[in-house]
Amino acid sequence: MAKIIFVTGGVVSSLGKGIASASIGALMESHGYKVSLMKLDPYINVDPGTMNPFQHGEVYVTADGAETDLDLGHYERFTNAKITRANNTTSGQIYFSVIQKEREGKYLGKTIQVVPHITDEIKSRIMAVTKKVDILICEIGGTVGDIESLPFLEAIRQIRLEQEQQDTVFIHLTLVPFIKAAGELKTKPTQHSVANLREIGIQPQILLCRTEKPLSTDMKEKIALFCNVKKNAVIEAIDTPFIYEIPIIYHKQNLDRIVLEYLNLPYHPHPALEKWYGIINTLRTAQDSVKIGVVGKYIKLQDSYKSIYEALVHGGIANRCRVEFVKVDSEQIEKEGAEKFLKDVDGVILPGGFGIRGVEGMITAIKYCRENKIPFFGICLGLQCAVIEFARNVCNICKAHSTEFAPDTPDPVICLLDEQKNITNLGGTMRLGCYPCEIEPKSIAFRAYRKRRIFERHRHRWEVNTKYAEVLRKHGLKFSGYSPDKKLVEIIEIESHPFFIATQFHPEFQSKPFACHPLFSSFILASLRNKSKSTI
Ligand code: GLN
Q1: I need a labelling partner for 512 at 20 to 30 A (CA). Which of 20, 229, 397, 493 fits?
Q2: What pLDDT score was predicted for residue 533?
Q3: Cβ-count burial 152-189 (b if 16+ within 10 Å, e if not)
């Protein structure tokens, strides 16, 4: 059986359990182990696909088309694990399948209960992901003490009991807050949160303590004593501006050694951590910087465009520069115009989105970039708005629009395919997951990818209306990427512009710190060139 590392969280949410789990995965990989990562989400939604980005943050799309929690993005960025729909399970999915089995009579008339039926379903999903790997890192969403996560905690308690002791290890991520009035770090919330876990039968072996200030030896000893863990297993998880430093911060405190000891697995003396040191070195020493305008409607919540920001950072690493984000709410552009917000940026990215709010501001931003030759990178809704802008302002099709925003427009340059017109369910009904795309030679896209066929992830309903392809092309819009059957437009660009490209797919989901997505590295390079041009 594969070993399982369970990661729980205490005290407050948003401590970065996803990044902690991903970092542990990276460390285990650096010892040569094959890993997988999994997230159990306590909410009742079947998936986050229908949730508001303001509440839930980004919806991360896997290659097999699952709409999942954004932590799965961290898993893919930090490790080589193959992440699929099986790697994210919600209470909604668990209850859905238990109820379905009950309706089919599969429980032979028994009374269906949280224990054992719900917990059995949870356990079987966890066990399914342990196949074919050496170590599974399983993150439990929510905070210990929440009512909702109880069945998950009960299920992992049972797994520990059923397996050999050295097959599982429990890591608890907690907070050691600094109380300004007392001028001290406080361990009490951590003590209480571990007490909560122990009450339901879980004794964590390792504590990751989030803190803004270093933990003294005394403090670690106190936490160890009161939480019943070994002293060396109290790990300081200090704040850092670079998430890619976290595997190294943990390694320096021997977290990998401690975990492997608990799991009774060999510690390989030369962990391949150099690549992480390399990244941190680049981020810390980069002299140059670029300012990237991120124009969107979910700008206020950092998490809504998580993968976009990360991919831009990767673009910076690839070009040895820092990337500064200038976050612009497209509704503000609607009110005050683009110049005020975009005149000082070196490049503009326009990520995906749904619904009409802020769309006219996006179109105005695109016009500004096109006319002022500012590098522009549109993604999904970004492509659709770029087509609308070009149709209206270059081809003179004044009423051009998307039927998503103007169902009765006389010029639907963006529309639904016939087979999508009768869809009424909102969940899971989009073009989702990986699709092939064929790239035209002699294009920005080809220069970036250096490949004729690529595979990219999608999450959208609307498509470019190919009835308008001819007129758009005649005026200078290039269709540089198509689906292999030529029915769907995947990439557009403007040849007479230094860098103007937009994709119907989401390249940000495939970018990694060590392997920046080619479009993001080209975009940052173009923005750097634009910057140096304007400073000459
Ligand atoms: N709302 C658009 C569509 O559904 C774009 C979606 C997106 O940007 N992900 O087609």
Answers
A1: 493
A2: 77
A3: bbbbbbbbbeeeeeebbbbbbbbbbbeeeeeeebebee
